[in-house]
Amino acid sequence: MLEGKIEADLKTALLGGDKKRAEVLRGLKSVLLNEKIAKNLRQTGLGDEQVLALIGKEVKKRAESAEMYRSAGADDRAQAESSEKAILEEYLPKQLSDEELQSVVGEVLAGLGQDPQMGQAIGAVRQKVGASADGGRIAAAVKAKLSS
After folding, report:
1. I need a labelling partner for 54 at 20 to 30 A (CA). Which of 3, 30, 63, 103 fits?
2. Do 64 and 105 belong together in one domain?
3. DSSP assignment of the chain
4. pLDDT band, very low/low/confident/very high, at 130 (cuts 50, 70, 90)
5. Which CATH number fits the domain that encloses residue 123?
6. Cα–Cα distances in angstroms (integers) from residue 4 to residues 1, 8, 17, 64, 138, in the given order
7. Are the CB atoms for 84 and 24 separated by under 8 Å?
8. Nearest to 128 by CA among 105, 102, 146, 99
9. Host domain of residue 76
10. 84 & 115 share domain
11. Same domain, 74 and 42
12. Distance CA 133, CA 100 (A)
């Protein structure tokens, strides 16, 4: 399970003196715990798909924060956010390239038949690719394919 790997990596970071990694993983554990409490899953735990979705949200937050800091001229803070993002991305599956994503979108749209709805198509692609593509990239790829 992914949660167990995160826990083990946190212990390794603490024992190895990697303060930055430990801080990021503690924050991630906190997010996971809050989700377990909110969904009343504290005893059973979260599934890997749920953990991946939460990690994806945290990565997106870091990317947005880094961009805001960069545009405000706070490059040191932007760098800190980017380094946290990099640590979290290690737990996500390899991201699909644009070409691979376009191929999956084409397959899914062909399977949906004539005139699929945008939301239906995005949902089907998201279900097929899981956490290996960001929702924004999926939406953009589906929109481009539907408009062509």
Report:
1. 103
2. no
3. -HHHHHHHHHHHHHHHT-HHHHHHHHHHHHHHHHHHHHTT-TTT---HHHHHHHHHHHHHHHHHHHHHHHHTT-HHHHHHHHHHHHHHHTTSPPPPPHHHHHHHHHHHHHHH-SS--HHHHHHHHHHHHGGGS-HHHHHHHHHHHHH-
4. confident
5. 1.10.10
6. 5, 6, 20, 28, 29
7. yes
8. 105
9. 2-89
10. no
11. yes
12. 10
One domain for residues 66 and 136: no
* CATH at 56: 1.10.1510.10
Q: Which pLDDT score is estimated for 147?
A: 84
Domain match, 73 and 138 both: no
Task: Answer yes or no: is pLDDT of 148 > 80.
Answer: no
User: Could you tell me the pLDDT band of residue 133, with boundaries at 50, 70 and 90?
Assistant: confident
Total tally of structural domains belonging to the chain: 2
81-107 pLDDT tens trace: 999 999 999 999 888 888 999 999 989
Contact 42, 12 (CB under 8 A): no
* Structure token pair of residue 13: 């970071």
Model pTM?
Answer: 0.79
In whole angstroms, give the CA distance from residue 85 to residue 69.
14
